[in-house]
Amino acid sequence: MFRELRSGNGQRAGSMLLSDLALLVGRSPRVRMRKPKVTRVGFALCLGCFIMVLLYFNSSLKPASEPVGERSSGQKSRRSPLQTLYDGDQVESAVQAIHQGRREVLEEACRSYTRKRRVLIPEDLKHVMVDDQHGLLYCYVPKVACTNWKRVLMVLTGVAGSLRDPLAIPANEAHIPGNLRTLSEYSTSQINQRLRSYLKFVFVREPFERLVSAYRNKFTRSYNTAFHKRYGTKIVQRHRPDPQPEALERGNDVSFEEFVYYLVDPATQRKEPFNEHWERVHSLCHPCLIHYDVVGKYETLEQDSRYVLQLAGVEDQVSFPTSSKSTRTTGDMAAQFFHNISPFYQKKLYNLYRMDFLLFNYSIPAYLKFR
After folding, report:
1. Helices H, strands E: what count in the chain?
2. How far is CA 29 from the centre of its chain?
């Protein structure tokens, strides 16, 4: 069953999957002792069995996977990021207070709006990336700086080779499957160990700004032909009256209104899951099942990223890239896209993303007309 562990000071230290099977040892029947003295052969057998038992327990007490850096270098074990977060005083108290508040809001929202908790399964963990060397678990959310966070983890885990600047890693390489391991690839006992002892963090964003960002990137850029073919053609076919043959074939001129109709159409999710770029954060990262230690926000990206790197003790090894893009989607830009969406569909769309608004403490945007 799903279980939660706490550190000594009462803070939540992780989440658990199904517990491992316990070994049941039955009692052996009583054997009558022979009177003759123990022979040399018997003594040798007993000694051999004793040594085997010692070797077995010695190997079973080792952790599932030691951090590679410590194992290879022979350095003394250092405080983990999780210990630094809950027991340390190395990070500015004001920043700690902000993140403590976010954890409390998230926990309260989970208690209030989650009716029934279920057990985590490996499928839930495909977005959770693992850094065994530094004890980090990162759940990536597309359109919330996940490219740069993957680059940072590639540097930290050594996947990037000698590169120390995350921006030197091409964006497409950051998304290659297999570069970074996901938590779903580990055994149940290894998953449990990491959920208990690693620092778990996620970055979120105002839901409708993220949604507009996904639309702009996937449907208004000429180079995203794969998205146009897979999703654009379906959207045009289902939600455009009398579409032109060229639009049906290419799907490269989907309007934001048509995109909204596609999202709120009940048939959409019945036929296939949402693409990760517009899937809800609570469906990608399961924050009511995994107790995240740090909830970073896109609105305070640089501060929160620096906080995570400080907790990991690597702020002198790698820096989170500073964004200089002037094309990033803002609240004012999102308001322009929603201007032509009727209050009826605004309400339906809000209901679809409502849990993300509640869990991560985002207010209903002022530009919505259904309020």
Report:
1. 17, 6
2. 51
Pairing mode of beta strands 136-139, 128-131: antiparallel
Strand partners, 272: none
Cα–Cα distances (Å) from 279 to 51, 238, 284, 291, in that order, read 55, 20, 7, 20
Contacts of 182 (CB under 8 A, 6+ apart): 125, 126, 127, 128, 129, 130
Separation between Cα atoms, residue 155 and residue 159, nearest integer Å: 6
Amino acid at 223: Y
pLDDT tens digits, one per residue of 276-296: 999 999 999 999 999 999 999
Long-range contacts of 228-233, Cβ-Cβ distance < 8 Å, separation of 24 or more: 228/252, 228/254, 231/262, 231/275
The per-residue pLDDT for range 214-258, each reduced to its tens digit, is: 999 999 999 999 999 999 999 999 999 999 999 999 999 999 999
**CB distance 290 to 196 below 8 Å:** no
The predicted-structure confidence for 23-54, as pLDDT tens digits, reads as follows 233 333 333 444 444 456 566 666 666 666 55
* Complete DSSP assignment for 161-210: TT---GGGS-HHHHT-TTSS-BGGGS-HHHHHHHHHHSEEEEEE--HHHH
Q: Is the separation of the CB atoms in 128 and 138 below 8 Å?
A: yes
